[in-house]
């Protein structure tokens, strides 16, 4: 293995952590295990996506040495791709929402990649994402568009790695998978693998609640990066990598609930997860409180660390020496 491949070898094989105190405090009837993806080399589950897409493109000769990688990203894919680009000798440039956390933008720059901020309202306009994709492609005609929303290598890497790891590490006991939907790669690939192993397994997606859905009229709503609405969205506007057939239940979560669960998790379990993980664990707790899941094993995807959202959090504005908001 050469040095460049050793970077890839660090990706994946992430541990499960049982959230015992979290479950006891809420009188939950099912066991919840967090799949802790922040331990990937560039800090999120999106390192898998980046690795899957880049390696497939290299193998198929679609990427040439030194080429520019471009994508539309909520940040984590950009960070994963930027790190991988640095390790494998590519240049990289990412178009992201202007509201993306400052830490994520700074991390992308630290790996030597460029960013282009796009107004949130542009994303939310009818057909906005398609228009931005067209712009990304036309502004970078010679670049390799990594296309995390449609490249089948995205769900495939989760089918081939995330799913088998969960199966192995629960000894096949997993009954429910809970994840957020950004591109849909995680939930679709992991869900497909696990359902093929265990047909009774249920897959649940967390979605923003009604107060947390931005609209063209209200683009400034506080949202959770990586948690997108799926129900009620026209199928042609959903990412091609989202397989609606794999999801059995959609659980709503407001942004304030997601942030509160992420804060509670840090205090109760010592696991400092990002807000999308707060949303996923909110959904996992809802399911774990239901009688039909009593005694079951729920695996929740903890996509990244809260460290990359600290500037969005009131924790940094706490009174000196105080514990901050609960
Ligand atoms: C923090 C976070 N959580 C969850 C997701 C959802 O992952 P996926 O794109 O595989 O649906 C993303 C990516 O969009 C993310 O950045």
TrEMBL record:
Protein name: cysteine synthase
Reactions the enzyme catalyzes: O-acetyl-L-serine + hydrogen sulfide = L-cysteine + acetate
Cofactor(s) in the UniProt record: pyridoxal 5'-phosphate
Keywords noted in UniProt: Amino-acid biosynthesis, Cysteine biosynthesis, Pyridoxal phosphate, Transferase
Biological process per Gene Ontology, one example term: cysteine biosynthetic process from serine
Family indicated by similarity: Belongs to the cysteine synthase/cystathionine beta-synthase family.
One Pfam family here: PALP
Provenance organism: Methylobacterium nonmethylotrophicum
């Amino acid at each position: 293995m050469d040095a460049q491949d050793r970077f890839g070898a660090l990706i994946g094989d992430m541990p499960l952590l049982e959230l015992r105190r979290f479950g006891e405090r809420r009188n939950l009837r099912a066991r919840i295990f967090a799949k802790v993806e922040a331990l990937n080399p560039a800090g999120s589950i999106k390192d898998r996506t980046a690795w899957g897409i880049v390696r497939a493109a290299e193998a198929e000769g679609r990427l040439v040495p030194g080429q520019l990688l471009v994508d539309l990203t909520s940040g984590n894919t950009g960070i994963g791709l930027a790190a991988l680009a640095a390790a494998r000798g590519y240049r990289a440039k990412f178009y992201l929402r202007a509201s993306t956390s400052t830490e994520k933008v700074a991390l992308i720059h630290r790996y030597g990649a460029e960013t282009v901020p796009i107004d949130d309202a542009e994303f939310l306009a009818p057909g906005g994402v398609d228009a931005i994709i067209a712009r990304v492609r036309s502004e970078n005609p010679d670049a390799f568009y990594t296309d995390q929303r449609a490249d089948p290598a995205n769900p495939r890497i989760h089918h081939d790695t995330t799913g088998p790891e969960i199966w192995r590490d629960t000894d096949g006991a997993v009954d429910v998978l809970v994840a957020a939907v950004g591109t849909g790669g995680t939930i679709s690939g992991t869900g497909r693998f696990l359902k093929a192993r265990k047909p009774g397994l249920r897959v649940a997606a967390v979605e923003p609640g009604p107060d947390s859905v931005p609209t063209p009229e209200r683009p400034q709503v506080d949202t959770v990066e990586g948690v997108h609405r799926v129900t009620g969205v026209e199928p042609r506007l959903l990412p091609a990598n989202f397989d609606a057939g794999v999801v059995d239940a959609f659980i709503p979560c407001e942004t304030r609930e997601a942030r509160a669960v992420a804060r509670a998790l840090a205090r109760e379990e010592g696991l400092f997860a990002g807000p999308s993980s707060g949303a996923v664990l909110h959904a996992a707790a809802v399911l774990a409180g239901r009688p039909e899941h009593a005694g079951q094993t729920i695996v929740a995807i903890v996509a990244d660390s809260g460290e990359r959202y600290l500037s969005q959090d009131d924790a940094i504005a706490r009174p000196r020496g105080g514990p901050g908001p609960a």
